[in-house]
Amino acid sequence: MKEQLMAVKETFVEEIKRADSSDKLEEIRVRVSGKKGALTLLLRDMGKLSKEERPAVGKLANEVREAIENTLADQKERIIEMEHERQFELEAIDITLPGKKPDIGSHHPLNIVVKDLSDIFIGLGFSVEEGPEIEWAEYNFDHLNIPKDHTSRDHQDTFYVDDDKVLRTQTSPIQIRTMMKSQAPPIRILAPGRVYRSDEIDATHSPVFHQAEGLVIDENITMSDLKGTLDLFAKEMFGPDTKTKFRPHQFYFTEPSAEMDVTCFICHGKGCRVCQNTGWIEILGCGMVHPNVLEVCGIDSAKYSGFAFGMGLDRIAMIKYGISDLRLMFENDIRFLKQFR
Amino acid sequence: MHVSLEWLKEFVDIGDIDPVRYCDEMTMSGSKVESLDILGEEIEKVVVGKIIKIESHPQADKLVICQVDVGDQTLQIVTGADNIKQGDKIPVALPGAKLVGGLKIKKTKLRGVESTGMLCSAGELGMKTSLMPKEETEGIFIFKEDYKLGMDAKPLLGLDDIIVEFELTANRPDCHSIIGMARETSATFDRHLLMPVIDIDDNSGVGKIDEKLSVEILDTQACPRYVARMMNVKSIGPSPAWMARRLLNCGIRPINVIVDVTNYVMLETGQPLHAFDYAKLGSDKIVVRSALKGEKTTTLDGSERILDEDALVITNGDIPVAIAGIMGGENSEIGSDTETIVIESANFEKNRIRNTTKKLNFRTDSSTKFEKGIDPELAGLAADRAAQLLIELGACELINGKIDAYVNKPDTKEIKVESNWVNEFIGIDITVEEMTEYLERLELAASIEGGVITVKVPTFRQDLDIKEDIAEEIARLYGYNNIPNTVISGTATEGGRSLSQKFENDVKDTLVNNNLYEILTYSFTSRNKLMDMNLSSDDDLLNDSIELINPLGEENSLMRTTLLPGMLQVISHNYNRNLTEGAFFEFAVKYKNAGDRDCLPVETKSLSLGMYGEKDFFSIKGIVELIMEKARIPSQRVEYLKGALPTYHPNRNAIIVVEGQEIGYFGEVHPKVCKNYDLPAKTYCGELNFKKIFELSNKEIKFEELPRYPGILRDLAFLAEEMLPARKIEDTIRKNGGNLLKDVVLFDVYQGSQIQKGYKSMAYSLYFQARDRTLTDDEIRAVMDKILDSCKNELGISLRDA
Question: What is the torsional sign of CA A149, A153, A157, A162?
């Protein structure tokens, strides 16, 4: 009996180890441990053994059964793994084929610039304000300290709805409205928006365009604050190596006034066609808010001071992205728009 | 404005300053340089030569052989010019010379004859031929003056000059002259300013001006000052080369010595002058008055001008002899026979001049200067300067005396500034002495007392008014880029975007991520484009629109009352370029007449949608539903009602209604509109009132506990008449489903062979769930029965037979 058990163990363990599929394994299992299996039959015959023989044979029988069950279990796992690998081979694909990419649209490049700009100033504690595009002439000119006879008021330059209402020529009226509304500094606002000038449409001019103006009013605001804030803005907008340069200029609502240049963000100051080889690009106008403007808005110019700045957004977008023709911004050709995804 | 540095150097010594550095520092102190033109930069080795002999060329009829003495040698030069004669002094390009355009001169042979060098024309030397008389530009340039042979010809031709073009700001009329820019230069570089010495002895001439002329100003507001001098003419020839060169380099055409002197003094001082022929004046008085309506005069350029009361005229007491500040009249023009002249040096109010040039639609160098506003103090100085030059050049002899009608003297101004305040305001820390030093460089006399600077404002700086103006003068000479960059101190502010702005960005992002392109279109539209939307002529979109008084053409004459014309044009543009599909949106403002002249128009934030390509009505409806979802408005609260808007297909359009409010409309574009706008069939568009959507939106998210008990799904398929709206069925199901019914989804609409004609199969999936228990089949069955009964009784529909 002992020899038979050992023989069964040896034969079947070897067979099991050679099984290479679940089906084959199952077939072997049936042959060894099934109803009519070799081991099963042997174990049944154990009843014919004598009392003295049974313990020893029983012990061996258990060992054999265990060995066979373990081997079956192990081989089953091995086979599962092999089958997985076979499956993996079959399921191989050409991963270089194109994916099922969902289509997306894009934001308009002008609005991308507005958003970037707004984010920078929001980070400095500014809020974003809006105002009417059809404005009182008084808010667009008079309150901004612009002389009554200034050419910008001419019908050749500004669109009029009637004698006192114009299409705003700058977003500064929003600053006036903000100052008149709150009358209590501190004020930090950014006012982006659409503005209008009577200009024939061509590659660099449009009757409809976009500006963003900013205003800071508080006690003890200095011109060095103006420079520092705008220098910070330039570095965030155009890159940390950007330098700024301020040149004296003249605006009616600021005194002193300046224009600010930044290092050309195309050639980084080396000189190129875009910056006409100067290495600098003019970006904005700015200055300390004129006391007349503060007083008109009910703010005590003896106690408070402030600075204001304004920039043309279409131009910044065109330079930043290298857009050749302003008309493309309003034509909205898909081949143009999708470049801004 | 163009400034000749060669001329400028007469007033301030900048000889050692590199021109590029000059331009940079002038820009940084407030006079922006637009361009720098180094004249004659390319030209080398051109000298003065004299023609000793001219012979014909044996092999060429059109060529001549010249023997030219250039001081140290005589050169043989062949030329094709025919305007030269023996004894002429001309510019000679020596071998090795370089001319305009990189032309290099070498020893050569022309038709077999050696030619060593070249005789030059004005054009070959890069002179301003467009402003020179023909005799000087055709053929070889001939020197009028007797120059030494062999000397460098460049300075003699004005070709050693550098012309700087400045962009000047409106508040600095005093800079529009050589002296003005010399003053700025002297302040910027801290160099001494040398003003010309003008010394007229009004006893040294003949006669007395008071016996010959009187001046009366009728409108002293328009003409604050009128200065007149008179001179007897000795000879009217061309002005000397040095004066002609300076005029040319500043872009003015030399004419004759008298006209040239008036232009020269204008450029130099900034005060325009005018010279009349005294005899042609026809009287012994000058009366300055406003023109009469319809009054005519012919100006020097031969054009007849019709004036009105806005124009100012210089008259002889009767008729105009000049339009003040703009141009003289033909009737008093100086000619070769003029014996006596009157020099007018006057001041005119800038707005009168500007109004007149606008109306007459012509401008001159004079009027351009007057329009900016000129210091009346200049008038006296300029008249004397002109007289002095004319005497020095031997062109005229002085008639003693000067008439000066000076009625409106400008007030003297004093501005007091605390030096501490200047430092604080600008953000610097300099001494009061340094501040006054800057001011004095600009000729702003400043005295100090206890930290307070008192500035006496000179008449030529009418732009200085308040302490901030003085701070600017100090800051710009200190150097803006020397001011430190500081961070704003003081109270922190909240900043950020408003809820409505955040919501707008959210919706934009959602639309972009769902394959729509953001567009921006013009704010203008026209009656035609609105009518092309199939509107009737009394549609509110037309009647409520705002018209511009001065539009850029008819197509841009109205402010848009709807964003659709712009959207449809964009679709048309893309479709007509074979871009087969596209979806777009625009966030912008539309404008409506408020109906009250004392109010600004009503501006409403609007959102337009548009799409074409493989799309249908439900494609655009899907986007609308997405927007409603972003606004967290539950779909049950949104109703879609059929509208009657003429722009859309009558049976494929919808008005969106939320809580009884219309918030927008959309649909398939009407074929007529497709034709008018050149759109493909199956174009879809819509417009939503964004303001209303934001107001109706749910700003907060409230978390709801996850269900603890499983729900039950039941499907229903109804057989319904074709035209029964799906919404009605759904509403009935929901109404009867009660609280237990959590979701109703229409998953199939079928019309086909298995359904009778005129009917459709509507298959719904219903999901039931209770918060507190597992629902039983019995409970569900009861609800389902209620639903089916209601549908049968109210809508007349029953389950489809399997």
Answer: negative
